[in-house]
Amino acid sequence: MKIEIWSDVMCPFCYIGKRNFETALEQFSDKNKLEVIWKSYQLDPSLPEVQNGSYTDHLMASKGMGRKQVEGMLANVTQMAANVGLEYHFDKSVIVNSMKAHQLTQLAKTRGLGDEIEELLFRAFFTEGKNIADDETLVELGKEAGLNETEIRNSLSDDKYTELVKKDIQEAHSLGVTGVPFFVFDRKYAVSGAQAPQAFLQTLEKSFGEWRKANPEIKIEFTKGQSCSIDGVCD
């Protein structure tokens, strides 16, 4: 069964939501029958590739909030992250355009490494204060995830990957997605936001139960006789 997750690497609740979802997966007995697909979503496509102010400054300008209000909000989010084992350092976060990071994710998805690269990008942005719009930073993260350097560099300059990002975003809009994280289960149920693990687990159990009824396991009863195996051994 497919589970699609729309997310932006610069969204603090997306990383927290990822952890809560993973906690639910650990309690789900049929997790090996799930296919998790990460989808791109840009919260602010207008951001430049070069940093222009701190995370606090960015929120003050974009939300029209005062400094103390923003600082209090970020302190609360930092505590929420700590509660699920994550370490946030908003004072180090480099506010830049996330398009290239999404292009890297699109490449990683084709190699079955979508979850690995998402984890590394989140950690780079929220914990390590790395520039996720910098080519060399993305190359190192991609290599750490297990990707080929030449392919990584191509993904950062090839319009094909930009179009894949835009396609994900358009798809999100067609589904009525207005914020992330947004989790879609078998295109029938959705969980919006960084909800508690129990909310994910309940939706997993409900959606998978319906999916299993529509896609029953095929069990064949057979009797064994003399045969040849694929490695050429006959007995």
Walk me through this protein's architecture:
This protein is of the alpha+beta class and 235 residues long. It contains 9 helices and 4 strands, in the order βαβαααααααββα. The chain has helices at residues 12-26, 55-63, 67-83, 99-110, 114-127, 135-145, 149-157, 159-174, 197-214, and strands spanning 2-7, 35-40, 182-185, 189-192. The longest helix has 18 residues, at 197-214. It is globular and about 75 Å long. It starts with a strand and ends in a 21-residue tail after the last helix. The mean pLDDT is 94.
Rg from alpha-carbon coordinates: 21 Å
Distance between the termini: 38 Å
CATH architecture: 3-Layer(aba) Sandwich
Low-confidence spans:
none
Oligomer: single chain
Task: Looking at this protein, list some descriptive labels.
Glutaredoxin; globular; 235 residues; alpha+beta; four-stranded mixed β-sheet; 9 helices
Quick rundown:
With 235 residues, the protein is α+β, with helices and mostly antiparallel strands. The chain has helices spanning 12-26, 55-63, 67-83, 99-110, 114-127, 135-145, 149-157, 159-174, 197-214; strands at 2-7, 35-40, 182-185, 189-192.
Task: Set down the secondary structure blueprint.
Layout: E1 2-7, H1 12-26, E2 35-40, H2 55-63, H3 67-83, H4 99-110, H5 114-127, H6 135-145, H7 149-157, H8 159-174, E3 182-185, E4 189-192, H9 197-214
Parallel strand pairs: 1-2
Antiparallel strand pairs: 1-3, 3-4
Helix pairs in contact: 1-9, 2-3, 4-5, 4-6, 4-7, 4-8, 5-6, 6-7
